[in-house]
From TrEMBL:
Source organism of this protein record: Algimonas ampicilliniresistens
Domain of life: Bacteria
Stated name of the protein: histidine kinase
PROSITE patterns the record matches: HAMP, HIS_KIN, PAS
InterPro entries, per the entry: HAMP_dom (IPR003660), HATPase_C_sf (IPR036890), HATPase_dom (IPR003594), His_kinase_dom (IPR005467), HisK_dim/P_dom (IPR003661), HisK_dim/P_sf (IPR036097), PAS (IPR000014), PAS-like_dom_sf (IPR035965)
């Protein structure tokens, strides 16, 4: 769209700019004229009063000085040096005369000033020649008279000129006052004209636009909007007319969409499997879809619209004729034919009620099947628990008997005269029986699947250092056989935790057994207890073994799992040790942490909540294989 270069001249911006520019120029003109008048008035005051008065005063002072000079030539005040006082008075006379001449406002006085200067120079020469001579010398009367007369004439001329300036100043101020009144009246008339012009071309169209906008916002879309001009207010009015048309079109579209939505809603209600019923504020049914008749077959043959809802349904949506046996869940009820329904009843904004019924028979059946499956799983869990308890007794009893009998045979065959090989065989039987018994206990521990935190009421205060010490004693022989140095540093304080003593001993023993098995000959395993900054008890088992890849940390905590790499291929075991350690730690509210690197070793840390501590003398023991 090509815009006319003259369109700016009819814009609101141009009109406002022109109006304010005109008023600014008027104000600037009046202000400039006022400044000029003030400056002229000041100059008149100076010419009328300041300069004439100074000229008259200094002329009179020069006359007085000249009189003093005449007296000084007749009777010197200093007989020894009459020249000094004469020179001073001559200088003062010349200075006064120069100031009077500089402040003079009478052009005619210039010639008299010249005569005074000339006469005084002649008088000075003649009087200086006779100064200091004795006798009855006579003054130069003619020159003196001329000087005095000329000074009087100068004073008279200044006075006359000052009076003429005063008359001229009065006339000038009267003229300035008349011109100022005319200028102010003209500026006022122009300002009023500019204001009226701006009101007619800007304010009135804006007022019309505001009135039309108010009526449109009130919903009167047929209001007449003025046409307007070519400036911004005209464009605004054009935009409002366009907006009025768009609003009309959009409202028509919304009405069509609303009608379409109503049709769609009616179709949805007709085809919905859920029953929907709506009542008015009096409880009379005004909407009931076919789903109501499908769900309540006793109502399918009668028209529902127009009936009182209270005769058919209670306030919670349950049919009045339904006989409910036993407690029912809120919002759900069972029909006489066995079907289950869920109802959602709510109040409408107009005061009526909306009921929506849904068939939940299949959901109820699935819930019942899940309950039965849960009961079966709980029964199986109880049977498993009873089986494990029985197996624990049935397996541990003969194994303990075998171990005990083999220990007795070992002692018997150690006596003098007996065959030592029989004692070794009995020891092997005892060792194998103990190993099998431990495997059985580990399997039962894993099968028990108990990782819940133990009830604090069943716990006791356990010296964790003592439990670790017992575990170290249990693996000392294994460390000696594999050539691993075993280091155990008792803490300086007794570290007590709340837990089960046998569980904590088993935890430490399995960590130490695992560290020794997966170590190298000549390696080391270190056990230590410490206290964290937050007051927790920390058990660290540090080894220099084959290490574990960090990606396998979660893998090795699973039952019956081992990382089959490096030295671990030659190590016997069920893969239950670390899994049991993790379970025991969780039952005690502790946390198991693993730090390891391949071929560098591992650190297994168990962090317990703090119970209590007391001071004890530090002690360190070390065991190693030759």
């Amino acid at each position: 769209m090509i815009r006319s270069p003259f369109k700016f001249l009819v814009s609101v911006k141009a009109k406002l700019f022109a109006g304010f520019l005109a008023m600014t120029l008027l104000i600037a003109g009046l202000g400039g004229y006022a400044l000029l008048s003030i400056d002229n008035a000041g100059q008149v005051v100076t010419d009328t009063f300041d300069r004439p008065l100074m000229a008259v005063n200094f002329a009179r002072s020069a006359g007085q000085t000249f009189a003093a000079l005449e007296i000084e030539t007749l009777r010197p005040s200093d007989v020894d040096n009459p020249q000094a006082e004469f020179d001073r008075l001559v200088t003062q006379f010349r200075e006064d005369l120069e100031v009077a001449r500089a402040r003079s406002i009478a052009p005619r006085a210039e010639s008299f000033f010249d005569d005074i200067v000339s006469d005084f120079s002649s008088w000075e020469i003649s009087e200086r020649a006779r100064l200091g001579q004795t006798g009855t010398a006579q003054l130069n009367a003619a020159l003196s008279n001329d000087i005095e007369e000329n000074l009087d004439i100068v004073i008279e001329l200044q006075t006359n000129q000052s009076f003429r300036n005063r008359e001229q100043a009065i006339s000038t101020m009267a003229r300035v006052r008349r011109f100022s009144l005319i200028a102010v009246a003209t500026a006022l008339i122009l300002t009023l004209g500019l204001t009226a012009w701006i009101a007619m071309t800007i304010v009135r169209p804006l007022k019309a636009a505001a009135g039309a906008a108010a009526q449109i916002s009130a919903g009167r879309l047929d209001v007449m909007i003025p046409k307007g001009g070519e400036d911004e207010t005209g464009q605004l009015l054009k935009s409002m007319r366009s907006m009025q048309t768009n609003i009309r079109d959009r409202m028509a579209q919304e009405q069509d969409l609303r009608t379409l939505a109503q049709h769609r809603l009616a179709d949805s209600l007709e085809n919905s499997k859920d029953g929907v019923l709506l009542t008015d504020i009096d409880g009379r049914i005004i909407v009931a879809n076919p789903g109501v008749g499908q769900l309540f077959q006793n109502l399918s043959e009668q028209p529902l619209v127009g009936q009182m809802c209270g005769t058919l349904f209670a306030a919670d949506g349950v049919p009045v004729a339904l006989n409910q046996d036993g407690p029912q869940q809120s919002g759900e009820f069972q029909l006489d034919d066995g079907r289950w329904l869920r109802v959602n009843a709510s109040a409408t904004r107009e005061g009526g009620r909306l009921f929506i019924w849904s068939d939940i028979t299949e959901s109820k059946q699935r819930t019942e099947h899940l309950r039965q499956a849960r009961d079966a799983a709980e029964a199986a869990s109880r049977a498993k628990t009873m089986f494990m308890a029985a197996m624990s007794h049935e397996l541990n009893t003969p194994l303990n008997a075998i171990v005990g009998l083999s220990d007795m045979l070992q002692l018997e065959y150690r006596k003098p005269g007996r065959d030592p090989s029989h004692a070794d065989m009995a020891g092997l039987i005892s060792q194998s029986g103990s190993h099998i018994a431990q495997i059985v206990r580990d399997v039962l521990e894993i099968a028990n699947d108990d990782t819940e935190v133990i009830d604090p009421a069943t716990l006791s205060t356990v010296d964790l250092g003592k439990a670790v010490d017992q575990a170290v004693s249990g693996v000392r022989d294994l460390a000696a056989q594999t050539g691993v140095r075993l280091i155990w540093t008792k803490p300086s304080r007794v570290q007590c935790v709340q837990g089960d003593a046998l569980d904590l001993k088993q935890l430490a023993a399995k960590l130490l057994d695992n560290a020794v098995k997966f170590n190298r000959s000549g390696g080391a395993v270190k056990a230590q207890l410490s206290e964290t900054q937050t007051g927790q008890i920390r058990l660290d088992i540090i080894d220099t073994g084959i290490g574990i890849d960090p990606k396998n940390f979660d893998h090795i905590l699973q039952p019956f799992q081992q990382v089959d790499e490096g030295y671990s291929r030659a190590v016997d075991g069920t893969g239950l040790g670390l899994s049991i350690v993790d379970r025991i730690a969780k039952r005690h509210g502790a946390e198991l942490k693993i730090q390891s690197a391949l071929d560098k070793g591992s650190v297994f840390s168990v962090i317990f909540p703090r119970s209590s501590s007391m001071t004890e003398t530090p002690h360190q023991t070390e065991s190693h294989a030759a």
